[in-house]
Amino acid sequence: MIEKVTLQLSGDADFTSEGGPRCEEMNPKTLLLYAAAKCVGKTALMIMDKERFRPKRFEIGISGELSDETPQSESTFKSFHVVYNIECDTEDDQAKVSRAVTLAHEKYCGMMQMLRKVAPVSHEIAVVSTEPAKA
């Protein structure tokens, strides 16, 4: 079975669950994914703030494959996959965003480091800009 959480950057610079249950309604395994997504998102935003820019849209989806087909209290995660979908104003911002997310994912986010001790963590980053390409 696969557990999944998607967080979206809101206007007040916080990440909120998109179309899913609120924290109070999540099971503990989903809460772990929620915490990891929020941690890596906040860490990436902190790096972006140092570069003095913010993306137009920032979405983080994290899924974890459980050892059992039906969730049980003794189920464990076999793997994790994180998808970063980000929209920027310019092509120059694309490189900055990609760098910030990579640093957060691989080096600075403690939750990602912790998940890597539990099971393999893969990721993909999709960054687009709304500025037309230069000729």
From TrEMBL:
A Pfam family per the record: OsmC
UniProt cross-references to InterPro entries, sorted A to Z: KH_dom-like_a/b, OsmC/Ohr_fam, OsmC/Ohrsf
Domain of life: Bacteria
Record protein name field: OsmC family peroxiredoxin
Species for this entry: Alistipes onderdonkii
